[in-house]
Amino acid sequence: MRLFLDTNVLVSAFAARGLSADLFELVRVKHEFVTGRTVLVEFERALRLKIRFPPAHCEEIVAYVSSEAALVVDSAPAADCDADDDDRQVLGEALAGQSEIFVTGDAAVVALKVLGPMRILTPRQLWEALRTP
Fold it and tell me: Is the pTM of this model over 0.90?
């Protein structure tokens, strides 16, 4: 399955142990992890400014995440949906990467539920879906 993890999921995965970290590992090992250039830029900025990781450590983490992706979408048109401009850009990259599921903790994006052929789930919803036989 092709899965796209939003910036907030990646930040949670690397800021603390928990559901998002476990989910990242599961997606990385058992599925096709897709990301976009916009997410990688946002991710690095959040690690540096919000989590306050040293810049060199942020660069290493972003390089690692990038290397684990089956596909990094460098550019794509913004998605045509009811979301803010930043979210529309990230959703556009997810669609361009032919992601089947977009995973986010952003309630406004989760409320969309579906965008074209792509389902939108919270980390908990995806975890339960993947762990249920």
Answer: yes
